[in-house]
Design brief:
The protein has about 300 residues and is mainly alpha-helical. The chain has 15 helices and no strands. Helices cover about 70% and strands about 0% of the residues.
């Protein structure tokens, strides 16, 4: 009897088949752009010009990646990018979460003023020239801190974390105060562990932003080889490739295309920049789904 009770009907089987087909189509649509970029980056340059490459390279080669990593300054840029991403993410996460915790406290009298002030920064900006003058007066130009301090606090991240903290039971903080805990202990030992899902999300936002950002290097540290970043060096590689392909004459065109293709270089650069984020993402994904406060307060 129990086996018959769990047998699927014909309509349920048909529904499951269509559901699997639909999910398979969604998966293919999602993966195709990345597979296409990977295939072009692994394809031989002269063959790439012909087009018609989809998810598998016709002429497999690693010359595009060898061309990229043959440029000087790429290793130093990779080191600075990793250091910038790690330090910028940690500092941004700590500063944004501490400010969000302060704004979530009802007894903080200036919470409305600070919130309005932060919201204004999301809609209004002084512009590039005042920003450059400010960085110059703060003596941050030509230093590593130009990558970290200006973006230490983001109004968007603060509001996202604060919204999550507002949904936490305030009884947890009251009970901790009764046990003699101060604000720092409440923030570190109670609020932060419960905010792991939103903190993981903000961590990914900060890491991706720091890893992909190159304009700061171009604007402030373009003449500092020891402070260059990977994205800035790859941008120079791409610019050199495009300029070189446009300057060759008809006699040298075949030789130029045999050595390098701007399209292949673009795709190889995309893979190099995207791969580290793809490696980190699975470790943070598990915090995006479930909340951490279920069962935190018992009746």
């Amino acid at each position: 009897m129990a086996g018959k009770a769990f047998q699927m009907t014909k309509s349920e089987r048909v529904f499951d088949i269509f559901l699997y087909i639909f999910l398979g189509i969604i998966m293919l649509v999602t993966l195709y752009p990345f597979l296409n970029v990977l295939a072009i980056s692994l394809n031989e340059s002269t063959d790439t010009v012909r087009g018609g490459i989809y998810i598998w390279p016709r002429v497999l080669t690693l010359d595009n990646y060898k061309q990229i990593f043959s440029y000087t300054g790429l290793i130093q840029g990779f080191k600075i990018s990793i250091l910038r991403t790690v330090s910028g993410t940690i500092l941004g996460l700590i500063s944004s979460s501490m400010l969000a915790f302060t704004l979530s406290r009802p007894e903080f009298r200036a919470r409305k003023f600070v919130s309005y002030f932060l919201a204004m920064t999301m809609y209004f900006s002084g512009g590039m020239v005042p920003m450059y003058i400010l960085m110059r007066d703060l003596n941050l130009i030509g230093t590593f801190w130009i990558y970290i301090l200006p973006g230490a606090v983001s109004a968007f991240n603060v509001f996202v974390i604060r919204s999550f903290m507002d949904g936490l039971p305030f009884a947890l903080q009251e009970s901790a105060k009764l046990d003699g805990a101060n604000d720092f202990v409440i923030y570190y030992k109670i609020i932060m562990p419960l905010c792991l899902p939103v903190l993981a999300t903000i961590t990914l936002f900060l890491a991706v932003g720091q890893w992909n950002e190159w304009f700061t290097t171009y604007l402030y540290n373009g003449n500092k080889p020891h402070l260059t970043t990977l994205q800035y060096e790859l941008m120079k590689v791409l610019a050199t490739t495009n300029q070189g392909s446009g300057m060759v004459n008809a006699n040298d065109m075949a030789k130029q295309m045999a050595q390098i293709s701007p399209e292949s270089i673009k795709m190889a650069i995309t893979i190099v920049v995207t791969l580290p984020i793809l490696v980190v993402y699975p470790f943070l994904q598990k915090y995006f789904v479930g909340g951490m406060t279920l069962g935190a307060v018992k009746a």
